[in-house]
Design goal:
CATH topology of the largest domain: Neuraminidase
CATH architecture of the largest domain: 6 Propeller
Largest sheet: 6 strands, antiparallel
Number of helices: 0
Radius of gyration: 18 Å
Strand content: over 45%
Length: 340
């Protein structure tokens, strides 16, 4: 973790931490809960903090958890969403440090500062209330996209976009090739390609792709190795590998697939999760190469899971135990992101 530099912002009337991430020169900002003699508390690792939001465990949940992605261990409480809900999509503008959570049988978009634990605030609205949508972004280039979902008893084609640093409502981007929900999304960051994989609608195995900075309809990328919905996706950012883990096709699935995001083609087998599950969420620390998969409904307990697994995204193999979420929960779907 980089040591933040501290200064007092006279306009805001509070201490601010400016956290430089390693050799990349990326900058994260955060509020200090206290500061003295150059020390600051309350700031989480820049580029290495992952968050999981919402879900379901008998009741709809508002809980946001956080982890330090490079360091295995149990999640800790970050704060709460503005409204308890499940089946959201989450993304961020990378090291610029803003995370957003959209939908979840709702039109609400919330935002957080990922390096600063606290409750989410209202960002704006999606065009309609929806559940089971996928979300991704082009990182510090600042565009977030939400695709698919389920609304008014219909699977959806629509893709919407926001400027993550600017509060406001989502706008129309284009359409997926197939209407579906329960689909995860990921991207190769500032290289600007987003992908959406699988989904519920006859359990399609379709992977779509878009150029995130250019509104328009998605195109066919290739196919997942297994048709499924409610899997989770993440990537190692500009290093260009995307992974899809878990899911459901009438059976609990543990399979992890991988793709090269810049090159259309079919997904290939990467390995397996520690337990077959669906309704999980995934995120990563980007080019630092660790992906994490958390929560869901698992085959062993036939119930909500608190398990977090991790992988090294550039290296094929099975997932390993990372730790546990603060509460076992399903229907996380695509509701994890990071400040990488």
């Amino acid at each position: 973790m980089a040591i933040p530099k501290i200064y007092f912002d006279n306009t805001e009337g509070k201490w601010i931490a400016v956290n430089k991430k390693g050799n990349s020169g990326a900058i994260c900002f955060g509020d200090c809960t206290s500061s003295s003699s150059g020390n600051c508390t309350g700031i989480l690792p820049c580029g290495d903090t992952g968050v999981f939001g919402g879900g379901k465990n008998g009741n709809n949940l508002s809980t946001i958890d956080y982890i330090t992605i490079s360091t295995p261990g149990n999640a800790q409480n970050f704060g709460d969403l503005t409204v308890a809900r499940y089946g959201l999509g989450a993304t961020s503008n990378g090291t610029n440090d803003r995370g957003v959570f959209g939908g979840g049988y709702s039109y609400i978009i919330d935002y957080i500062t990922i390096s600063t634990p606290g409750n989410a605030k209202k960002f704006g609205n999606l065009s309609v209330a929806k559940y089971g949508l996928g979300a991704t972004s082009n990182g510090t280039n600042d565009r977030g996209v939400f695709g698919g979902g389920y609304s008014n008893k219909n699977s959806m084609y629509s893709i919407e976009y926001i400027t993550i640093s600017t509060l406001g409502n989502a706008q129309d981007f284009g359409d997926l090739t197939v209407a579906r929900y329960g689909l995860p999304a990921t991207s190769n960051g500032t290289n600007d390609r987003g992908v959406f994989g699988g989904g519920n609608g006859g359990y399609p195995n379709t992977i779509d792709y878009i150029t995130i900075s250019t509104p328009g309809n998605a195109k066919n990328f290739g196919n997942m190795s297994v048709s499924r919905h409610s899997s989770a996706a993440t990537s190692n950012g500009t290093n260009d590998r995307g992974v899809f883990g878990g899911g459901w096709n009438g059976n609990y699935l543990s399979v992890i697939d991988y793709i090269t995001i810049s090159i259309p083609g079919n997904a290939q087998n990467f390995g397996n999760l520690s337990v077959a599950k669906y309704g999980l969420a995934a995120t990563s620390n980007g080019i630092n190469d660790r992906g994490v998969f958390g929560g869901g409904y698992d085959e062993v307990s036939a119930s909500n899971s608190d398990i977090i697994d991790y992988i090294t995204i550039s290296t094929l193999g099975n997932a390993q135990d990372f730790g546990d979420l603060t509460i076992a929960r399903g229907d996380l779907l695509d509701a994890a992101t990071s400040n990488a």
